[in-house]
């Protein structure tokens, strides 16, 4: 691989204009097609085959009132002014005026007032009207939404608190914007400090933006042909930007080192592509395999999300080993590190091949390793009570009308009203079906944590009925989850006694099933990537203990990351610092997604650090010097790369959406733990303690393992042969 990348580096440097303009042409084509087709991210986070999904199918088949799609709905939630109720004459007039104003929109199919539907709370102070549109929730136009907001604002100005809820979303998911700009600016500043050159700092940013544009636009194009959730695009943006900058940094940094060592521009480019480029390809493939491996979960939206992220990383790798060398060809000697003036009388440096951090770690390896492990172990503890789910409107900021509407519904009707359970009762025959449905409905209403249950409503055939149960707790509560399981456990008994099949669905039940399915898939996925890491690292580093150490470090990173997320998102600690509106369950696909992404990125840092150590050990045979050399030559680059990753991911922490916020939080602190505590502290300390045994590999295993050259040894051997011939 090193030889191929060496030749590719020479080609890109010599044909730099064609390579650069060719990549820009691909970018322009991708942008034109993507913007022309438009963003069509309407995929839902559902899992076919779950109990709630099957029940939802029955519900739609048996109670559908038409063949067309179900219209989107808006709940207009009212709270009477102080000292009044919704039955006060003045309040009724204001509500009637508001609904009359809203009804002027021709896209509305029907409006049912709180007085017609009886949707008025116990205190008579809170109630809601239901607006149903002719089109699906995702197809309701911005003009219709704006019309509703104007009518609502008018009601508020007259003293009537009016908020919104329902299936039509008023707060859109942020895709692209200030977060990415902040991340790019922070990355540029880190690169400028690292390289002490604005030109050198700009190269990785430029190539990352080219790769990001091609990758993200390709994902947008694909979204027009397959169902894709909006989070797929957000993940692609996060990863494409972060790894694109990092990979450009690694190759540019090695190029500058080659110039200092006396190599010419073209040779420096080719050698950087052969060495750092090989590590980039290996690290990128590791990330790609980890993300594509999400398909083993068998969950469609997770699979699509993983493939979208993997494709963006693939584009970043290709751009890094092709366009970065071309831009280095343009830059030439202008980004050579400035050499410090030295005196002839100045004695040679004793610690020329090490830095202070390396000497500190190799002097006290045992206490440093223990301290690092104990620190991450303590941070991992909250992960033991991890609770997953899908954040609902109750997790949004109190500044949003969605959240205020959610709180009003809970205040007026009880917390369970925000997550009702739809119970489907299916009889084998119509004989005495109604009486049986009534009996079963009564039994279900007497279960613990049931605040209210409606009488059974039968369909046209009389063989299927629906009962709506309002839990006594909110949708995120573990007691609500327990109620869903209790109803399902009770279903077997009811089936045997009354010959009635009982099914549970509704958004709350669907979210519970998705979370449990994802939690069940997590161990299988984790085992897959751990096994993969052991095999790949064993091939790269020709060692048994180094891969085991790397995997244990990754597991420590993962548990600490999940522990920190639970501490902040679920337990509510430091919530003000990270602007978390309300404590709640961790996003249900976050653990498995974090496991895949952190695995790939952790292997990035492992490869760049340990490959330098192995290079030195192969040359000198001194294990301690190998650790010192790795930290000296690659430590600063890994530090910069880690800071860039953290800056990019952390920029997403302060967006409004809680799901994106939690993803940014997990990845930013995951990189912080892995790069700075595991890879730059614990790992070199453990390597020092293991000494020469770290590089032991049985001869029989060495014979069967393929040799992956990420240090450019083949290039060095060819150069030595050429020098001998000359």
From TrEMBL:
It is found in: Cell membrane. The chain crosses the membrane at residues 20-41, 181-199, 205-226, 233-252, 272-294, 301-328, 364-386, 525-545, 551-570, 582-603, 637-655, 667-690. Its main location: membrane. Residues 185-330 form the SSD domain. InterPro entries: MMPL_dom (IPR004869), Mycobact_MmpL (IPR050545), SSD (IPR000731). It is a multi-pass membrane protein. Keywords: Cell membrane, Membrane, Transmembrane, Transmembrane helix. Pfam families: MMPL. One of its GO terms (cellular component) is plasma membrane. Coiled coil: none annotated. This is SSD domain-containing protein. It comes from Paenibacillus glacialis.
């Amino acid at each position: 691989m090193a030889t191929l990348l060496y030749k590719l580096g020479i080609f890109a440097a010599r044909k730099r204009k064609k390579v650069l303009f060719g990549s820009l042409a691909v970018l322009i084509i991708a942008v034109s097609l993507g913007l022309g087709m438009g963003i069509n991210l309407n995929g839902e986070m559902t899992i076919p085959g779950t109990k709630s999904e099957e029940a939802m199918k029955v519900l739609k088949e048996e109670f559908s009132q038409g063949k067309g799609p179900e219209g989107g709905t808006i709940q207009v939630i009212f709270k009477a002014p102080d000292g009044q109720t919704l039955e006060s004459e003045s309040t009724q007039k204001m509500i009637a005026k508001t609904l009359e104003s809203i009804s002027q929109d021709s896209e509305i199919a029907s409006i049912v007032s709180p007085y017609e539907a009886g949707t008025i709370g116990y205190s008579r102070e809170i109630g809601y009207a239901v607006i149903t549109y002719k089109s699906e929730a995702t197809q309701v136009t911005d003009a219709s939404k704006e019309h509703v907001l104007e009518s609502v604002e008018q009601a508020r100005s007259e003293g009537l608190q009016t908020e919104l809820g329902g299936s039509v979303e008023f707060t859109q998911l942020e895709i692209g914007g200030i977060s990415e700009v902040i991340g790019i600016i922070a990355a540029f500043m880190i690169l400028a400090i690292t390289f002490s050159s604005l030109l050198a700092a700009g190269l990785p940013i430029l190539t990352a933006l080219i790769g990001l544009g091609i990758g993200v636009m390709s994902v947008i194009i694909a979204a027009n042909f397959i169902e894709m959730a909006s989070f797929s695009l957000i993940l692609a943006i996060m990863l494409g930007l972060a790894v694109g900058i990092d990979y450009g940094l690694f190759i540019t940094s090695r190029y500058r080192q080659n110039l200092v060592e006396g190599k010419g521009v073209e040779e420096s480019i080719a050698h950087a592509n052969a060495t750092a480029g090989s590590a980039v390809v290996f690290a990128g493939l590791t990330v790609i395999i980890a993300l594509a491996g999400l398909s083993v979960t068998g969950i469609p939206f997770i699979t699509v999300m993983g493939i979208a992220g993997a494709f963006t990383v693939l584009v970043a790798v290709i751009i890094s080993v092709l366009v970065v060398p071309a831009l280095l060809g343009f830059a030439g000697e202008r980004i050579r590190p400035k050499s410090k003036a030295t005196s002839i009388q100045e004695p040679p440096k004793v610690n020329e091949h090490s830095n202070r951090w390396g000497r500190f770690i190799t002097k006290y390896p045992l206490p440093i390793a223990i301290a690092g492990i104990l620190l991450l172990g303590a941070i991992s503890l909250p992960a033991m009570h991890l609770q997953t789910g899908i954040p609902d409107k109750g997790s949004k900021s109190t500044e949003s009308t969605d959240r205020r509407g959610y709180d009003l519904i809970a205040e007026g009707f009880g917390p369970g009203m925000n997550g009702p359970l739809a119970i489907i009762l299916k009889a084998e025959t119509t004989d005495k079906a109604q009486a049986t449905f009534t009996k079963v409905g009564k039994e279900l209403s007497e279960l613990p944590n049931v605040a209210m249950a409606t009488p059974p409503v039968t369909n046209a055939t009389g063989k299927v009925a629906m009962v709506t149960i309002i839990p006594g707790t909110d949708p995120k509560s573990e007691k609500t989850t327990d109620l869903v399981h209790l109803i399902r456990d009770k279903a077997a008994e009811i089936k045997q006694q009354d010959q009635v099949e009982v099914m549970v669905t509704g958004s709350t039940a669907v979210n519970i099933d998705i979370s449990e399915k994802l939690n069940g898939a997590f161990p299988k996925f984790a085992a897959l990537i751990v096994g993969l890491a052991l095999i790949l690292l064993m091939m790269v580093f020709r060692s048994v203990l180094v891969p085991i150490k790397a995997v244990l470090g990754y597991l420590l990173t993962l548990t600490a990351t999940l522990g920190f997320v639970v501490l902040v998102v679920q337990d509510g600690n430091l919530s003000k610092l990270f602007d978390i509106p309300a404590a709640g369950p961790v996003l249900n696909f976050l653990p498995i997604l974090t496991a895949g992404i952190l695995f790939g990125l952790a292997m990035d840092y492992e490869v760049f650090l340990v490959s330098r150590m192995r290079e030195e050990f192969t040359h000198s045979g001194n294990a301690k010097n190998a650790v010192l050399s790795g930290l000296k030559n690659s430590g600063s680059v890994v530090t910069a790369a880690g800071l860039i990753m953290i800056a990019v991911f952390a920029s997403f922490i302060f967006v409004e959406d809680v799901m994106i916020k939690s993803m940014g939080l997990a990845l930013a602190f995951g990189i912080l733990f892995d790069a700075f505590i595991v890879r730059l502290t614990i790992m070199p300390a453990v390597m020092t303690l293991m000494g020469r045994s770290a590089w032991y590999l049985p001869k029989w295993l060495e014979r069967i393992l393929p040799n992956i050259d990420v240090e450019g040894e083949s290039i060095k051997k060819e150069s030595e042969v050429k020098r001998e011939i000359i």
